[in-house]
């Protein structure tokens, strides 16, 4: 929990800011009537003390609907088995009429989205034609690859609805008339839409209080996190509603000290384990115990291929020398000597 339940907004301060914002919008309106343009959105701007470690999406239920009846809502549904695309559209329109849902203006099955809205320009046109998108929770995970990046850059991705719910009208109205806050881990500011220009001051004030309470209780951070809260429209300045007490800085400092001490204790434990290992090694060396070491395994030396033929020749040599009868081993020296004797006994011709 980020804030305690006791921390809240000053109702008089909120009402004064809302009335000032209404006076500003009255000066900008074209006619004499107040809030002639119902499409003007009123939003809450939250400024946090520190950047959250993880991104989070917070659903905000509001006591008064923050969308006008003129806004168009598109619903992405799954493809019903044994039905064509037109039959699927008629089936879900009939289902919505039976359940009493009147806020949805268009039904698009998944097959139609995958085929007819495949080009980039078709996706841009779809994004500009509707103010809000809903999706059946059974096909929610399949939509990002077919919608494109512009839906997510402009924060217009579809919100999930359980089409098998018994109270379908109540669930859809809560999603449409409620709001949501996207808390990112890339900055300390986030904004949520909580009203429109056609609402009264009391309705806007109640929505502001409900949104502040839900955001302060659902933020996944420890200690006081909300620093400032402002109310504004798209073209107006931000009017302050809430300013955090400076005593929260001491609480934040204490949290940082606790985290630092926890890190130091973990580092000290690691050092203690390392020193213990080194002491055990020294003790084992002092007692003379052999420490098992990893020694690379030597491959057995192969016998040279030349040894086997030499052995065979040596073994076969005596058999060849006197093995067969009638053959004598030739002696080179005898051969040479014979040749020498033959050369020495030359016949000289006799003289008559």
TrEMBL record:
Region (Disordered): 269-352
CC terms in the record's Gene Ontology section: nucleolus
Biased composition (Basic and acidic residues): 277-286, 304-315
The keyword Ubl conjugation appears for this protein: yes
Record's keyword terms, sorted: Acetylation, Coiled coil, Isopeptide bond, Nucleus, Phosphoprotein, Ubl conjugation
Domain of life: Eukaryota
CDD domains found in the cross-reference section: Ribosomal_L1 (cd00403)
Compartments where located: Nucleus, Nucleolus
InterPro entries (alphabetical): eL8/uL1-like (IPR050257), Ribosomal_uL1-like (IPR023674), Ribosomal_uL1/biogenesis (IPR028364), Ribosomal_uL1_3-a/b-sand (IPR016095)
Family annotation (Pfam families): Ribosomal_L1 (PF00687)
Entry-linked Gene3D superfamilies: 3.30.190.20, 3.40.50.790
Compositional bias per record (Basic residues), positions renumbered to this chain: 324-337
Described purpose of this protein according to its UniProt entry: Regulates cellular senescence through inhibition of PTEN translation. Acts as a pro-apoptotic regulator in response to DNA damage.
PANTHER family: RIBOSOMAL PROTEIN L7AE FAMILY MEMBER (PTHR23105)
Family to which this protein belongs: Belongs to the universal ribosomal protein uL1 family. Highly divergent.
Protein name: Ribosomal L1 domain-containing protein 1
Biological source species: Pagothenia borchgrevinki
